[in-house]
Amino acid sequence: MHTGGGRPMKSGRPWVRLVALTVATVLAAGGWLATCWLARIDQLPGVIIVAAHTSLWWAVWCLLLTSAVSLVAAGLLISVAMTPIRKPLLRAAVGVIGSLAWAVGAFALLVICWFSLFCLGLEGSQTFVTADDGTAVMITQDGFDGDMVDFYDPGPGRWWIRRDDTARIDPRDGHCTLTTTSATLTVTCGHRRQTILRN
């Protein structure tokens, strides 16, 4: 487009795209750090419970959002990189190569997200039981076949620490309760009962 004086008018606002790229890059970097941190927690003896979900559940959703932001940032990067190029052939080459790289990255992230959503379905359930004296225990059960059951003691903040005891109860058997003595904890789910030592 030209003005009345014959000088070309610049289309678009490169600085807007540059600011958007900076924001998207910062968000993507922070998102990947958060995803790795949350996924790492799931490998530790403890687990963080927020809004009745484990750190793995939050890691998967963080991965999904971060992947979307990363693709936006990559698209903006291609656009910003093409802006100063004046030679049509070079500009087209950068655009084609950038688009192909973006497509490959998008496919890779799609595969990762698909498997992550599959893992999301294996989160299972968390059952919280509290005795009359205030003692609490969390019972976790995997979402696959339910044969992996663990006990957790409350830790600092939102942390729960996995116990070494082998769980022999099934939260699906019925309502779970907790009774205590000075040395033991007795967890009852339906008709099954298991006594474990206090930590």
Protein model, in words:
With 199 residues, the protein is α+β, with helices and mostly antiparallel strands. The chain is 45% helix and 21% strand. The strands form 2 sheets. It has a 5-stranded antiparallel β-sheet, with no helix packed on it. Strands 6-7-8 form a 3-stranded antiparallel β-sheet, with no helix packed on it. Strand 4 and strand 5 form a beta hairpin. Helix 1 runs antiparallel to helix 2 and helix 2 packs antiparallel against helix 3. It is elongated and about 80 Å long. The N terminus is likely disordered.
Largest sheet properties: 5 strands, antiparallel
Regions with pLDDT < 50 over 5+ consecutive residues? 1-11
- Mean pLDDT equals 82
- Please list the strands of the largest sheet in the order they lie side by side: 1-5-4-3-2
Shape: elongated
Number of helices: 3
Content of β-strand: 15-25%
Total strand segments: 8
Distance between the termini: 76 Å
Helix and strand run: HEHHEEEEEEE
Q: What is the helix fraction of residues, given as a range?
A: 40-55%
Q: Mind telling me the C-alpha Rg? A: 26 Å
What's the structural blueprint in terms of helices and strands?
Blueprint: H1 14-41, E1 46-48, H2 55-82, H3 88-120, E2 125-130, E3 136-141, E4 149-154, E5 159-162, E6 176-180, E7 184-189, E8 192-197
Antiparallel strand pairs: 1-5, 2-3, 3-4, 4-5, 6-7, 7-8
